Amino acid sequence: MTPIRRASRALLVGSVLVVLASACAPDSSNLAGDGHDHSSMPVDPARVMGAPDRPIAGPQGAVGQFVVECPFSHALPDDPIVYPGEPGASHMHVFFGNTGADADSTLESLLEDGTTCEQALDTASYWAPALYHDDVMLVPEKSVAYYRAGLDVDPTEVVAFPAGLSMIAGDPAATEPQPTSVVAWSCGSGAARDETPPSCPSGRGLRLDVTFPDCWDGEHLDVAGHREHMRYSTTGQCPSSHPVHVPQLIFSVAYSFSGDPTGLKLASGGVLTGHADFVNSWDQDKLEDEVKYCLQRDVVCGVTSGRVSG
Amino acid sequence: MKLFRSLVGFCVLSVSMIACGSGDDTADTPSTEAPSTDAPATDAPSTDAPTEGVLNVPADYATIQEAVDAAAEGDLILIAPGTYNEAVQVTTDNIVIRGLDRNAVIMDGNFELDNGFRVVGASGVAIENMTAMNYTKNGFFWTGSNSYRGSYLTAWRNGDYGIYAFDSVGGLLEHSYAAGSPDAGFYIGQCFPCDAVIRNVIAEHNGLGYSGTNAGGNLIIVNSVFRNNRAGIVPNSGSYELCYPQRKTTIVGNLVYSNNQPDTPAIDVAILAMGNGILSAGGVQNIIERNRVWDHDKTGIGLVPFLEEDANDAIPSKDAWGTDCATQKQQMPVIPDGPLLWDSQDTEVRGNVLEDNRRADIAVGSAGSNLWELGNCFEGNTFTTSAPLELETLAPCGSPLSETAGDWLAGDLAVITWLVDAETAPPSVDWKIASLPELPQLENMPEAATAPAAPASATPPTVDLAAITVPDKVS
What we know:
Strand order of the largest sheet of chain A: 7-15-3-2-1-6-13-9-8
Largest interface: A-B, 60 and 65 residues
Number of helices of chain A: 4
Shape of chain B: globular
Distance between the termini of chain A: 30 Å
Oligomer: heterodimer
Shape of chain A: globular
Structural class of chain B: mainly beta
Largest sheet of chain A: 9 strands, antiparallel
Number of helices of chain B: 7
Largest sheet of chain B: 20 strands, parallel
Strand content of chain B: 25-35%
Number of strands of chain A: 15
Structural class of chain A: alpha+beta
Helix content of chain B: under 10%
Radius of gyration of chain B: 23 Å
């Protein structure tokens, strides 16, 4: 992509967002509504947003869901949410789904990009910090995005993410273990959830599982610090400050790495700094269909089994 | 993506409304487009008076989705010949969706759309007499249905399953054909009791002809053909989905042959199961009778364990095998410490006719369990080879098995070596480009234009199993 093309896109989306801005969106043309203000990042963002009541694991098929598998797309030291317009400003990220996501991405550019996802209409961008073993970056195999109603949430209350919603789950600055209901490590498609990477047997690669918040304030696609517009539900309820039930996105990054976890670290720091980012640039009509048909009707629209397909 | 991109401008505008939570739902879905057919323009007046309860596509409705959305219970949607680039969602109970010509009503996903038809939580929906191809997921898919029927369907080159019913009960799949899926051509999964019949179908050039993870209980597969897949009929157990173990599937009167096909798309399980005709992988209480099974590199009929590395729950004890699916869904899983080994148990293999199955015509294997404690029996089969040797002497039906009946280790199947074989098996071929038989011209539903609508029944037809004899060999 040439810078010129980017600029024209930014103008185009900017003009669209002007319409948005008057009603509900921050006055900005990039994905993050806060420009370059990183200083307002909460000290403990996980505490701001809360956490699910418990980790979600076990056989699929009990509650409505849809699932998207997306092979690895690319790695860049960019963060379209936290460092928009600043290529190279971030720690290394691994991107899934949208094939063009970078520091200059806009909603408009993401909607025009391709996707690695098997669901061709999922052009959303998903990313996580790169994982290193003895300072060598591990190329992940794929990601799996599970979309469900949050724990004990009435699924008929759940609506699709608004287009352009940007959010982060997990704490890139964590120095203590995070709740495994938010950030966990596992092996293969197994149900165990650990605070730190386990030693996985050969053939059952390491996975990073990040659970996103499922309550939205109904107003902001993003906010300064990227946290205040989202909360986790508890006992099936969203707080009155964040009354809109959106899908609970559980995002898993699958590696082929197995064996001794000593020497593993994330680009954001140690193995305790697990987090993931999401920008909703799905084909919005398709996302709304999936929420309406699968979540609201509480029907299993797809499952994964860890099986490898050709 | 072409259609999608052309609509981007429109999408952004609608997006701005959605972002503000207007809740406006008037925008047409862009996931469908008008059928590329020579049929009359949709707004042209129809010369025939519309028949009550019959919705014609494209004469009355431009797209199948529009007709489905307009249909009321009991209605019949009739689709004229043409190619339809749609992924149709069905949520209305008791409607019948029928093509006027199975071989000329073509649903085409263009390798971008996910399911030809997805019936979500609706019951009584019957789909008849058409073809679905090139979908990234499934050709025809029912999920969460309490009754379903697929008749005279052709599924060809789809990215997951051909014809698929999940978490659904009360089903009939018949007179249908599925080819070119990396997983199963036909799949019924996660139900007990399933109360379903598969009859008169053909599955070829799939990873698996039939797969039925955790499906059974009055589930009957009869009078069908499974050929030239990686593996033929492969029900299995696993805790990655609910309603385990796989139980009580009855497989009678089928032709199962040459399931060694090396150039199909294939999930890993299909590669592991390659070269087997009928293979129970950790299923229990199945009945396999009067099938004709020939030309397989491994077993004609094999009962083997399923090794599940990433277990999500413990294996239910035998006294819980009667628990229905709805009850099991309410139970909290217990995460096991290690991998699970689902043994095939209490299965009866009787009266089958087998030949030229190179490892063994009939076989039972385990990965450490004592075979005489698994309760599988073999009786009255016509065969040449077995594993272990003298299998019908060791494991007769109708009496308890005994360790002292003979040498259970002689000619052991050594099923664990299949894991090694899988490492060197021909790799999966991309489903989008795998070599397939030409799209066949197949039998049409009788009187498609005039037959009255018959929504799916929750009670599948009664199958007179006793009347079914071993089918004759075909060339």
